[in-house]
Design a protein that fits this description.
Layout (H helix, E strand, L loop, with lengths): L1 H5 L4 E5 L2 H15 L5 E6 L9 E3 L4 H8 L3 H7 L3 E3 L1 E5 L7 E5 L12 H11 L1 H4 L7 H8 L19 E5 H14 L3 E4 L3
Length: about 190
């Protein structure tokens, strides 16, 4: 048993393509390809990638960085857009929505986090408190249909917001397939 645990990995098989399969293949090719590990992906061209919009969160940019990809190149190749928040329609019932921004809510007040102050106001006078997302720059920009890149060194709390990417899943899978195959990933067209 000990000998089996110390045997180096020589090959990896990924079953299924699409966004998840090609993201995996691209990551493994980046990390294991230079070690001589053979990476193969099996997918069926008769199944194809579902061509819907793929919503992400800001952590996707770390994934791009890990592959040496520019998020702006990915946006261009996938007909993507920048995304500042996720809107949840019907959050508390019909006609109500909540915008979850990527970044901070409100301004800090010393050691007390903003949401505690907001909850206190909401408890005392709900009408004056407004919605939590009213206090987030990312949510306000998204509602207004506007975009500004957040500053690299925010000077004040409300400048802290983040962004993600929304892209065409089929185009993203094709983009990563090109990336992975250029790094030695072998594709087999078959049904499993």
């Amino acid at each position: 048993m000990q000998d089996q645990l110390s045997t180096p990995v020589r090959s990896v098989l990924i079953v299924g393509g699409g966004t998840a399969g090609w993201m995996t293949a691209a990551s493994l090719a980046q990390r294991l390809g230079r070690l001589g590990v053979s990476i193969t992906l099996v997918e069926s061209s008769s199944v194809g990638t579902i061509g819907v919009g793929e919503a992400t969160v800001p952590a996707i940019r770390r994934y791009f960085d890990s592959l040496g990809l520019s998020p702006f190149d990915v946006l261009k190749a996938t007909n993507g857009t920048i995304k500042l928040a996720i809107e949840f329609d019907g959050w508390r019932g019909a006609g109500h929505s909540f915008m979850h921004p990527f970044g901070r809510f409100g301004l800090e007040a010393g050691p007390v986090a903003f949401h505690h102050l907001w909850n206190r106001l909401r408890f005392r006078n709900p009408r004056d408190a407004g919605n939590l997302d009213d206090y987030a720059m990312g949510a306000q920009l998204a509602r207004a249909g506007r975009m500004a890149m957040p500053p690299e060194n925010p000077r004040v709390d409300f400048e802290h917001f983040d962004w993600a990417v929304h892209f065409d899943a089929s185009r993203f899978a094709a983009y990563l397939r090109t990336y992975a195959e250029a790094r030695g990933v072998r594709r087999i067209d078959a049904r499993v």
